[in-house]
Design goal:
By secondary structure, the chain is α/β, with parallel strands linked by helices. The chain has eight helices and twelve strands. It has helices at residues 11-25, 36-46, 62-70, 87-96, 108-124, 161-172, 180-188, 194-211; strands at 2-7, 28-33, 50-54, 78-82, 100-103, 133-136, 140-143, 148-151, 156-158, 178-179, 217-222, 226-231. The strands form three sheets. It has a five-stranded parallel beta sheet, sandwiched between helices. A four-stranded antiparallel beta sheet has the order 6-7-8-9, covered by helices on one side.
């Protein structure tokens, strides 16, 4: 049973999606909130498996709600729903820690597909048992199973599921170009979706910040083709 928190100020839409997930699809317990403030309260009390939230809401919008959640929980999957989102809004959401976007209007079946793919992605690493560390440059290593970024001086950081999956792909093909459409297809289940493409750019930026302290390794963009994790001899 998936415990889902649906934060939506449109009562009719909320009712339709809740009924679709619980009654038509099954396997869901849907908790509801009508704004970000209520969403925070339900999240704290119920600890849902996934959160689906509108952006524009009274009292507290989706951005502020996500910001506060991510201060305490880096791992709960969060999807934003919106009918009109500018490129600036998309980037803002991903930088706050949103995992994906679902464009309104949508059906419960479509939302279910997004949730299933996201949960499968985020739980895949934890299901593995063998630990394998890949050296990256002179200063870093990456635990490809646990998704942990390590510095040789002892510091560790747990990457988000999407960060870990992207870095894992790049490590598997170190020194080779990984085509952009291949990354989008494997990690976002699409090759051309605008939101997915912008999301990829955000995660590339995050990984580059991790690598910035070591000038022997670089995450390169090959214009019009893809990405390459390159170590300099």
């Amino acid at each position: 049973m998936i415990k889902l928190l649906l934060v939506e100020d449109d009562a009719n839409l909320c009712y339709i999606i809740q009924g679709g997930l619980e009654d038509m699809i099954g396997g869901y317990k849907v908790l509801t909130a009508s704004n970000g403030e209520e969403g925070l309260d339900v999240w704290k009390a119920q600890q849902p498996d996934v959160i689906v939230a509108d952006i524009e809401m009274p009292v507290m919008d989706g951005y502020e709600m996500v910001r506060r959640i991510r201060e305490q929980d880096e791992h709960v999957p969060i999807l934003f729903t919106s009918g009109r989102v500018s490129p600036k809004d998309v980037v803002k959401g991903y930088e706050l820690g949103v995992n994906n976007y679902v464009k309104k209007p949508f059906l419960a079946e479509e939302l279910h597909a997004h949730i299933t793919a996201l949960l499968k992605l985020m739980r895949g690493v934890s299901a593995q048992k063998e630990v394998r560390e890949v050296p990256i440059g002179k200063l870093f290593s990456f635990d490809t199973v646990r998704g942990v970024w390590k510095q040789k001086r002892g510091e560790e950081r747990m990457l988000t599921a999407r960060e870990a999956d992207l870095l894992r792909m790049l490590c598997e093909h170190k020194g080779q170009i990984v085509r952009r459409e291949v990354i989008l297809s494997r990690l976002w289940n699409t090759e051309e979706d605008y939101f997915a493409s912008r999301s990829l750019d955000v995660f590339v930026s995050r990984l580059r910040k991790l690598l910035a302290a070591d000038d022997t390794v670089e995450l390169k963009t090959v214009k019009g083709v893809g990405l390459m994790l390159e170590e300099k001899v």
